Amino acid sequence: MDKQRFGKTDLLVSRLGLGCMGMSGAYGAADDTESLATLDRAIGLGINFIDTSASYGEGHNHRLIGRAIKGRRDAVVIHSKSGSPREGGSDAVRGGGDPRYLRQTCEESLKALGIETLDIFCMSRVDPNVPVEESVGGMAELVRAGKTRYIALSEASADSLGRGAAVHPLASLQMEYSLFSRDAETAGNIAACHTIGMGFMAYAVLGRGLLSGQFRKAGDLPEADRRHRMPRFEPGNLEKNAALLAALESLARARGASLAQIAIAWTMAQGDRAGVSVVPIPGAKSRTHLEENARAAELILSAEELAAIDRIAPPGAAAGTRYPQGQMKRVNV
Fold it and tell me: Choosing from 56, 101, 177, 323, which is the catalytic residue?
């Protein structure tokens, strides 16, 4: 798979990354054997940009990836998020933006992964109780200590990006971005990345399964699935969102592609529009889904197709917010 320079870093990353959250039970049971085979296949396909977090499976995700990359550390670029302290947990400090918490989490992540240095260490959420300048300053110390090569922010507002970058260079912003979640356009996050010279990592590019067409009505979700708590999957909203898929599926059939591949290819195309390194990181915990996603990297949408997709799913088209209201207060801060 073709590689591209990521933002202003010296990192060469694949046009498509791999989100590993699902490998640690986020959406139903996970299978370590298949997950390891999927990671191996990703590396074989040239997908070298791996996204993980200290919070995924309470360290399980890091240990799993550590097993997969043992003896071939140079084959991957690891982007690891800090996660957030959990209420009632045993964290030494309580604030997710506290430099002490960030240092502690970075060191624990390195140990679990079995490596000496992260490629990118990313703060999962801007902490409203800690100035972003203080958080970024703490992460900058980790760069100077050789614990990470670069630092980044996730779900940060354009204002926070500018303030953080004034303290220390930021490699990238990670934010939910898909045909159904276009806040990064409308709130100016992608534009800020362009101005600052940052890369952009798009997560949930398949709308947590909505844009793969596998969920059309409430009964399609497994009983204990966390998506039951997400507004876009609530009865009424889910059916309205599913109704948007028919026209997209027609376009996909005309290109001999799947709905998921169209959604991923659309996300990739936004980087060219905005002049930003946009790398989608769709999750996959099986080789079958990984290989389907990887084929999207070969799909180049025409200007006419992109315009048609914008007509079908303009900003704000999806019914329901992307997170429950409590969690919405923590994004784009």
Answer: 56
